[in-house]
Amino acid sequence: MEKENCASFEEMSQSTEMEYLKKKWSVWFQTLDGDHDGVISTKDRDISTKKFAEIRKKLESGDKSGDKRPENVKFDIEKWWNDYIFRKLKGPEVKMTNDEFVNSLAEAYQKDNAAFREEMERCFEDIANFLTPDMQRNITENEFADGFKAFKFGQVDEEKIEDAYKLFKAAHEQLTVQLLVDAWVQFTADVDQSKQDIIMEIYGN
User: Model-level pTM?
Assistant: First the structure.
């Protein structure tokens, strides 16, 4: 009986953890839906491609931080979408509903949650490497805003950026791009509800 109770508790715990992740993945889906039509598609990828072109132009115009990016640093936004968002779906016109997106992530997580977390680390490190070669360097509020816009692929609410900055500053003495990476990895792969999840606080409410 004791073994059965332990097994039942473990199953309930795993179910709760998965529901928490699915809730967060649904929020992630919303941040990716740039045109707010209820699906993520190649149109949303095109929206983010334009946004990254604007960010690249701003970076190439020369920031005042002294953070020189190597010329060979490239970020293939289409490959990023295909690898981490559309995943197994291929073709010139791809569409995913919220359920399809969440289920694809759940399948990968349940197959190997450690490998899934490593995948999410690569996912957001790819973006970070595009922004700066030194993810541990302290960044300014303006740089934080640019970085936050890069990680959020749909339309960006300036008030939410301000809220995010306040939350990050309250939790960390110094801000770095690495902290943004860590926050998004936690948001997409962490099941511990006792930890503060800043991304979920910003976009999940």
Answer: 0.85
- Judged by DSSP in three states, 96 sits in strand
Alpha-carbon gap, residue 125 to 137, rounded angstroms? 15
- Cα separation, 112 vs 25, in Å, equals 17
Measure the CA–CA gap between 38 and 52, rounded to whole angstroms: 22
Indicate the angle between helix axes 141-151 and 42-60, nearest 10 degrees.
Answer: 160
Which residue spans within the chain are E strands per DSSP? 40-41, 95-96
Handedness of CA 159, 161, 165, 167 (dihedral sign): positive
Question: Taking a C-beta distance cutoff of 8 angstroms, is the pair 77, 45 a contact?
Answer: yes
Half-sphere exposure of 133 (CA within 13 A, CB side): 10
| 166-192 pLDDT, tens digit each | 999 999 988 998 999 999 999 999 999
